[in-house]
Amino acid sequence: MPVVELAGVTKAFQNTVAVRDLSLSIEAGQMFGLLGPNGAGKTTSIRMMMGITLPDSGRISLFEKPFDRRSLDRVGYLPEERGLYKKMKVLEQLVFFGQLHGLTTEAARKRAADWAARMEISDALEKKTEELSKGMQQKIQFIATLLHDPGLVVMDEPFSGLDPINTTLLQDALLELKSQGKAILFSTHRMDQVEKLCDAICLINNGEAILSGKMREIKSRYERNRVIVEFEGSADFLESGEIAEANNYAGHAEIKLKPHGDAQKLLHLAASMAAIYRFELVEPSLEEIFIQSVGGKPQ
Amino acid sequence: MMRNSPRNMLLIAKREYLEKIRGRAFRISTVLVPALLIFLLGVSAFTGRKMGTGKRIAVAADNAALAADIRASLLDDKSAGYTVETAAPATAQDRANLQARVQNKSLDGLLTIQDSASAAPKVTYISESSGDLMDTWRLDAAVNHGLLDLRLNQRGLSPQQVETVVKTVTIDTLLVSGSGQTGKSQGMTPFYKATLMTFLMTMPILLYGMDMARSIIEEKSSRIFEVMLSVARPDDILTGKLLGVGAVGLTQIAIWIAAAVLLSSTAMLAPLLSGQIKVHFTLLEAVLFPVYFILGFFLYSAFFSGLAATCETAQDLQMYIPLAVIPTWTSFAILPFLLNNPNSPWVVAASIFPITAPLVMVPRIGMLSAPYPWWQLALSLALLVLSIWVVIWFASRLYRVGILMYGKRATLPELLRWLRYS
Description:
Chain A is of the alpha/beta class. Chain A has 9 helices and 14 strands. Chain A folds into 2 domains: about 1-215, Rossmann fold (3-Layer(aba) Sandwich), CATH 3.40.50.300; about 225-280, 2-Layer Sandwich (Alpha-Beta Plaits), CATH 3.30.70.
């Protein structure tokens, strides 16, 4: 049961095609990463899901119904360009957004207080927004997105600009929402976060999906052709015919095998020449997959 | 599409209102605007009274009776407070002496009249400072009055007869109502009243309209409107903001009126409000004024918001300020026609045409008496409401699409494309 589904969506601006024939779907209880370099079409795709721009062709469904703005009451949206009313007090601001999403004043107040406690900003509730640091404002915006307990959470670059502590706080909150059965979509160009958090991804470049599906499936599609060896003794095994490329950093070697190169043969050879402390066959990181698929460096 | 949500609209209006009312700008302008007005009124009253006063003037004429006559008329004008000395019949030496005194500043001006018996007397006024308008008017009137007296006298009329012939009258203007009754003279009142009303109508509409535009740009530059667009329809957002800013305007005007009533009851402003300029408002005007004010505010503010939606910063908006001044130009350009004849075709058209109606209709009604042209009123109101709707429709589209155009101001072809696109 997809919570949000895009089918063959295309959107062009003047001379450039921002999104071309994009299809993806996100289930309840799934964390979905929308990946891609800057300008790939992530924000445009998200804006189409939110009805801010309309697709030129293709179909968008929310909660199994064709797109309807009424469904947006069940969506929490954190745009990439964040903004808050600077002169407003934090609590008033949160209550205002809660009310716009259909909450009563009392309910909005209570939830704002609960979330503030959880995000460790209770002291800030009576302050004016402009008096707060950027990180604090970002947490407030995050709360505003989630106050009405949306079934779908859409966040455009949610971690940009956050320090590691707040990043963890936010990640934990998202994981908890996921365990409550919410569908979560976020965009990022940071692979490590996606790798850690997401069940499924869609990698887009120049407006086109070049890789999409469940994380495990994607990774299993790529060969495990990288080996890390920690050793003491002769490094001559690095000349082996199984190896395409090797970097030796004084006892720590990063090796790329030839296509269909046999890791077991290499292990035997290495063990015969040196003392092996670690021999690990590494699955490709998302970053490597990304670079392979895009054929260039991510920005 | 999601249906309009009055609840969201009111929430947005309330937020806008509370934020503005609590802001420092509101407190400052509430105090400063009337203070500035009182100051300006004070300055103009002061300078008006002082203009050309207390000057020492010499009249050098070839005829003693003429000099005395001119001196009498000049002294007659108490507000001028002249000191006048005469030299008549004056010789060339007298004139040279007096002119020397003007140069060494023991005299402010010298009026010389030669060949007074001829058809073209030679009249000159010598002073150190040129161009005092009031002085010129007063001297002109006095000299012409004196010469007229002199000529009539020479043709055999006695001074009493001359007095009856040249006596000036002031005209009492009377208003005839539909039932044929004549009302009490209003004199200059319609002029003051129409000017006052046009002023009262234009200035706040402009001020709050620009305020609205600024508020839109703030939302764009603080990037909040993408969040807003994901929770509310653009026309709900715009209408809500219009209601909020409009309510702020009405609150401010209510405070000013209350303060004016209090001040006038302390008799400080009583001479100003009830003495020299007496302005009466009928019940109809009292009802129409706020109605047209609100509709006018809505129309112009919606228009300004549409413009603001295409701008990136307050600087971009500067470009459109001349456009914003158009209502003021038009209304003041129409004022003379209105005062001349409130039923002339141009004035009627202007009072119905939506862009000028808010500024022209109320002063126009103020100059008419019953029966009022009800169908024109109804038509003008209907057109106004319709055009507000249309302008909000356009503005909210621009507002929604403006989001895609961060970083640059839209050109006209782009604007047209935006409208089609959304």
